[in-house]
Amino acid sequence: MPTFLDFEKPIAELEGKIxxxxxxxxxxxxxxxxxxxxxxxxxxxxxxQTYAKLTPWQRVQVARHPDRPHFLxxxxxxxxxxxxxxxxxxxAEDNAIIGGLGRFCGYxxxxxxxxxxxxxxxxxxxxxxxxxxxxxxxxxxxxxxxxRFGLPIITLVDTAxxxxxxxxxxxxxxxxIARSIxxxxxxxxxxISVIIGEGGSGGAIALAAADRVLMxxxxxxxxxxxxxxxxxxxxxxxxxxxxxxxxxxTAPDLLELGVIDKVVPEPVGGAQRNRDETxxxxxxxLEKVLREVIGVEGGVLRARRRERFxxxxxxxxx
Length: 318
Known about the structure:
single chain, alpha/beta, 2-enoyl-CoA Hydratase, Chain A, domain 1, eight-stranded mixed sheet, 8 strands, about 15% strand, globular
């Protein structure tokens, strides 16, 4: 059985009944197959109706769902001969950000992204996708390496934000994030980013200042989490639901604002219900935009990328 979110309880009840019926032996007056079919149709209809009108806070919950495919899931399917490259050459290896060389749709590429982990052990190992300064310094190093060899860069973003611990601050968290953003804006090779789950704060944009930014339908992307916004503005974390609506953090909102370029549809019920279909959709969208920018001269790419983000700032000031 999948993991159900709070707003999915009616769906969970129906699917629970379906599972119970499937475990019956089939003897008796009730035609179990017919009953299962009716309940399944009802559950499917309820699932479609629920996901057709998700609130911003419900999208936040879906974006954080533990069963959504993570960075390594995409790499396993989409990237051939992936070779991880470790270390920032200053302090340590950071497992919250993984990067390396591989082949995507026939192109050699540098692939970098946040990895949250899938169980308690791996989540602790990857620090829940919250990188320390060495993670962003590693990302910067790999971007510069890709530029040196003329390789396109693909980044997959999925983080609640950069790690806020004392040690991270002592080692220059803000500077490391700024340098990573600088590298994104400076490289003279194609850079494409996909927001696959949470795109939280500077920890996300450090990998997402790209030529093209794609976003899964139920992902979120914001300067701050709803909880963080609520605690600052209202001194009350319970206001997070209202903050989620005010932040305009959903894919449709961000597409309308021009912050992202394309929304990649998810299966009905979210990426967690059909991981293979989601990964295939992301791969198809990535290939399409990569072919659009792969032949553009490096200086032109760099100038367009910088102008793109300068324009966002001008619109914000206006």
